[in-house]
Queue: 2 jobs
Job 1
Amino acid sequence: MTEAARACCSPARPEGQAPPIHPAPPSRREVGPGQGASLEDERPRLVHLPGGEFGMGTDSAEGFAEDGEGPARRVRLAPFAMAETTVTNAQFRAFVRATRHVTQAEELGSSFVFWLQLPTPARQAARRTAAALPWWVPVEGACWQRPFGPGSTILDRLDHPVVQVSWHDAQAYCEWSGTRLPSEAQWEYAARGGLEGARYPWGDELGDEGRGLCQIWRGRFPDQPAEGWTPAPVAAASFAPNGYGLYQMAGNVWEWCADWYSPRYHLDTSADEPLQALPSGRRTMRGGSFLCHASYCNRYRVAGRSFNTPASAASNIGFRVSA
C-alpha cells in the first residue's frame, strides 16, 4: 500500500527531522493547575477493566490485509485501566504548566493541518502541501495550543482532544501523569467494550456515516463535507460511551499506542500480553479520525490499524492513556 492510500491518516515527519524531547529542569516543574480547575480535575479519569481472553483482529474482507489486521486470534490480558477519553486540551495544558514541556511541533516551528481547517485566505496562500497528500498543509506556528496555526486557539475547546502531539510528546505526558500508552491489544480490548467480533465499539452497524455514533467524515472526501458538518474533532466525551464506559474509541482523533508497528503483528507477537517491541521506525495508531470514511480509509473499525513515525504530529492525532 502506498502512503497516498493512507492520506487521510496523517502525513509523516522523518524521525531525524524533529528536535529531541528535553525534560524540563526540576526547578521549573510543578507550577500548579490552570485557573479555575483543580489538578485532580485535569487528570485523566481511568476505568478499571477486568482483562481476560478476547478475540482480537479480523479476517473480514472489509479489513486491510496489508495492514496486518489479522489473522484473528484469541489474546489474553491481565486487568488494566484505560482513560475514559483521549487526553484533552485542558489536561495537556496542566502538564505543560507543570513541566514547561515544549512539544516537537513547537520546537520545529510548524506542523500539519488538514486544509479545510484553515481559513480561506490561509488556504489560498499555502504554497506547499505534504508530498502526494494535497489536503495536508505544513503550517508555521501550528502546535497543540494553536492546532490550526496562527489565529486558532484551544480556549474554546478545552474539552476537545489535544492534537499536534507526537508519540514522544505523549510519552512525556505519561511519565508526568504516572500513566502509560496502551498496548495495541489493550486498546482493542477496551475499544470492543465487551462485544465479541463486532466491527465498531457499539456493534456492527454504522448507520448514516456514523451520525450520532462517532465523528468520522461526512460527505465526499476530501473536498465536499456534508452541509452543516465541520471536519474537525469534537469534544472528547461526545456520543454515547461503549460497554466499558469509554468515549470515542472510533473516529475523532488517531490514538498513539505503545507498540512499534508491524504488518506481522498478529503473526509475531505472543497471545499473552502481546506487544510489538521490535523497532520498525513507526509507531502504531488506533481508532481512526474525523477524516476517515468507508469510501477511503475505513480504519475506524476496532480491528483497524495505522502508523506514523514517532516524531509526527498533525491536527488529527492525539492519544489516550492507560495504567
Note: Confidence is low (pLDDT under 50) at residues 1-5, 19-40.
Job 2
Amino acid sequence: MSAHNEEAPILIEDGLIGNGSPNDGSPEGGSIMLEAGPDAAGQRLDQWLAGKLGPDMSRSRVQMLIRQGAVKVGGQPVNETKRKIAVGDHVSVAMPEPEPAEPQGENIPLDVLYEDNELIVINKPPGLVVHPGAGNWTGTLVNALIHHCGDSLSGIGGVRRPGIVHRLDKETSGVMVVAKTDRAHKSLSEAFADHGLTDDLKRAYLALVWGIPMRPTGTVDEPLGRAADRVRRAVVPESRDDARHAVTHFTVVERFGEQQKESATASLVECRLETGRTHQIRVHMAHIGHPVVGDPDYGQAFRTKANRLPEPLKGRVKAFPRQALHARLLEFRHPTTHLPMRFEAPVPRDMEELVDGFRRF
C-alpha cells in the first residue's frame, strides 16, 4: 500500500471513517488523518499523536516520523515535535512501508543478566556493535538477539533495530536492556526518552579519565551538536539548530598519581546521565579537560600523557584499543509488573587491568 493511498483509514477525533484503526495493528504503509478535539488543546504534537496512534506506537517512533517530514498539520509538513496542538487542527501521518527483515540471527554468545517474556538484560562486551549499519551488517548485538530470542523480539523499533530502546557505543561495555514485546518497547522507550526525570530510570557509567577534576563532584550542563566533521559530537552554542540539551553528573571515585608530579594523573569517575545524547560522557568529560583514557575521537590531544607513565603501565595504556568506559548500572521499572529492577555489570577484564595499573604506579 502506498503511503499516500486514498483508501487508507481516515481517523477523526470522535469516530472512524474508513476500514481500519491504528489499534488493529501497526499502520505501516498507510495514511492516517486525525482532527484535534478540545482535549488536545495545548498538548505537544508528539505526545498527542502517540496517545492517538495506539499502544503499539511509541513516542520516540512518533518523534522520528515528525522529523522525517511524515506528519502534516493543516496540510503543511512540520518537523518540530514540541509544536502545540490547537482545537480543530487536522493532522495527517504518512506511515512508511515496512522495511524488509534484513538482519539474520547469528549464534553469537550473550552474557544474559536477566530475561523474561517482556525483556532481556545483557552485559554487552566491548567491540560489539549494537545494530546493523554501514560497514557492520553482521556480527551485531541485533543478530545475536534474533538468534537468541527468535520471533519474540519486538520489531517496533525498525527491522534493523528490533527491540533496541537505547544503545552503547561499539567499544563501550556494560548493561543494556532490550524489549521482546511491543508493549515493553513502548514503555522502555518512553522511560529512556524521559531520561528518568519523572520515572525511576537510572544509568551509571565508570570512566577512567585523564587528570583529576578539581572538585570531587560536578555537573556538566552543555548542549551537544555535530562537530565540524559531521561525524563526531561537540559542545555547541544553545542557539544552534542542532543543539541538544545534555547534562552529565560526575563523581570522582579514585585518584591516581597525585604524588607523581612528573607523571600523568588520572581518575576513575562515575558518570550519571540526566540525558542520553550520542557520545555524551566522552564529549562532556573532554570538554572539562578530562577525556576518557583511550578515546580515539575525543582524547587524541592527551595521547602523549602515556609517555610520562612508568612501565609497564605506559605500554598498557598505549596498547589499550578503546575508550575506558563501562555502563556499570541500569535501573528501571518493569514495563508490566512496574516493579523496580536494578542490574550491575562487572568491569571487563581489560579495563580492570588498566585501572589496576594506575592504582600501582
Note: The two ends are 66 Å apart (CA to CA).
